[in-house]
Amino acid sequence: MTRRRDDSHDGRKFRAMKSDTWRFQGLMKTLLAILCLAGLTAFAADRPNIIVILSDDYGYGSVGCYGADGKLIQTPNLDRLAKEGRRFTDANTTSSVCSPTRYSVITGRYCWRTSEKHGVLGMFSPLHIETTRLNMASLLKKQGYSTAAIGKWHLGYGKADESPAWRTDYAAELSPGPLDIGFDYHFGVPANHGDLTGVYVENRFVYGLRNGKIPAHMKISGPDRDNPNFKATYTIEDTESHKNEPLDLDAPHRVNERVMPYLTEKSAEWIKAQKKDTPFFLYYTPVAVHNPVTPDKDIAGTSKAGPYGDWIHELDRSVGGILAALDEKGIADNTLIIFTADNGGVFHPEREMPQTVAYKAGLKVNGDLRGGKHTVWEGGFKVPFIARWPGKIPAGTVCDEMVSLADILATTAAIVGEKLPAAGEAAEDSYNILPALLGKEAPAARSDMIIHSSDGVYAVRKGSWKWIEGVPAEGIKRKKSDEFAPRLINLKDDPAETKDVSAENPEVVKELSTLLVRYRNGGYSREMPPFIEKMMPKVAELTKAEGSVILEESLVSLPEKPWTASKGAWKAEDGAVWGVQKGAKGTGANLRVPVGVTDGVLEYQIQFQGGRHSLRIEAGEGKQSFRVEISATQVGLTKNPAPGEPRDQILPLARKAVELETGVWYPVRITFKGNQTTVQVNETILSGTHELLGMEKKVLNFLVFGDKAGFKNVRLVK
């Protein structure tokens, strides 16, 4: 008994000593952080010029200093940056596709916290960055910097209204835009290289716009008539897809082979025009190496990796143009340059494309990483990241610390001595990696990080662990793919991401999946947010419409005549009827029923499990129809093309955003009254007017596109 008491006493002493040790270690870490911060804030007084070069679709293995075969491609200017600066081996984009990462670079926030849950912004999308949101440009402008955004923009122009036909009008003032979020100057390609605009934008208008909604007495600047960077026409052959006709804009058009040299020239001119006593921030976004692959004539054929290798040479030459401008002005020593990319390289070796030619020649576009652009694999996120700041960043060094491109904002704030707002207010997901840039001994800025694929699949990194949630965004059709299945990967043991080790490590799965949910629901990750349980979706309760019943079908089983099921798979289960589209390019599963009503109310319930729904209503004479479109993110009312009209001649009548969750039954009510139709989906209501809507409704077609959608309790009264 006595000995046990002594053992217990010794145990308490050991635990107390251990606790004191932990406290001491914690105190030392805090002191180290304070000392580092004190040293780093001294740099704030230097206020360096800052240049962020964000290349497009540039893979981890496509740079000499990252292991690219020098017999195939040469990147002397990027290699020079690495020799004179610091190269990161674990730098990651926030998305494996461009617009979301660009949003994160500028705002320090994951783009999936906005309405953009998957894919990229469209060419006609409004400005995606709120004009009141802290961002790189507004932060540095506040600090007295001159600011410019030159190159690919792809973050939208204008402010959308509730008009269903709203889209960016490139013949009008493009505002709000970059100048409304803190940039003093903007010269850019609106969306992608090879986009349908075929023009440049300068500040608030298309460059050289001759006819459009131009304010009275305002002259739009433009190029000289003999400028080799422009041509009179821009055709379908100039576009990336070669499928759709370009916009009809009365303005000088881009010459694809001259876009990179011209953007380099504009950037160099802007740098040279800056006052030496005023620091500047240049957000330079080359279109290379995005498709179409269009190296200039003087550089074509210089690579043994084919045209794609030449395109890489074009990008490297552009970086050289920026370095030369700094050297010529004598300001290189007080300029921080960060070179990186918005996502990994395109990798589809099964397709005929320039990247495949390069790959077959031996160029590992993304190094030894799995996958590439769009995917949830490392090839989609891990990108080159090189930083040079002479005298501050140690030359010729390598950093293996995990960083995110979202960290550039917080790091910039640290450089200029700007205190960030609370994590829940701005720069929600941005960490200060200045110690890592400067090669200072300090704890790693971040221990974890969220990445997000083009399909909306989340993954979280922590150390060598990577947890892939495997669930695509609402409305994305599930496919047979490892990306659409939960899996845990140990990147240290399995860098090729071939083995799921979830079963062997359930505690890691639990930790990372819980962390992902906490960051996602909490609204930020710069600090640990409080645990917020996701609220159950609110479902509206609608009383039955009164009137004479024309159609009533519970759909607990497949309905009999006059109903017909076609063009897809239909089955009854769980008290509802479910439709699934067959094939990737199918016309949708169709459940069809004839009716006869002019004024009335149609009610039913719908549940999404990855699909989207269109109710096509045949009305009037002939094959006229209109449709109600319902997805997890949008409700719309649209008149379809009349017989003899082209298929793209649709007329949007109403459109609103919604947020509907998978696995939840939502009420739908469609009211027909005269020439107006009112649609209610859950709590969202919209209305549209057209003479076709006032005609007799003859047939209802319940269409399902993509994955599953279910229906029950269909009821029509007049």
From TrEMBL:
Protein name: Arylsulfatase A-like enzyme
Organism (species): Prosthecobacter fusiformis
InterPro entries assigned: Alkaline_phosphatase_core_sf, Sulfatase, Sulfatase_CS, Sulfatase_N
Keyword Hydrolase set for record: yes
A Pfam family annotated for this UniProt entry: Sulfatase
Taxonomic path: Bacteria, Pseudomonadati, Verrucomicrobiota, Verrucomicrobiia, Verrucomicrobiales
Domain Sulfatase N-terminal residues, every copy: 48-416
GO MF entry, a single one: metal ion binding
Family classification: Belongs to the sulfatase family.
Cofactor: Ca(2+)
PROSITE patterns assigned to the protein according to its UniProt record, in alphabetical order: SULFATASE_1 (PS00523), SULFATASE_2 (PS00149)
UniProt keywords, alphabetically: Calcium, Hydrolase, Metal-binding, Signal
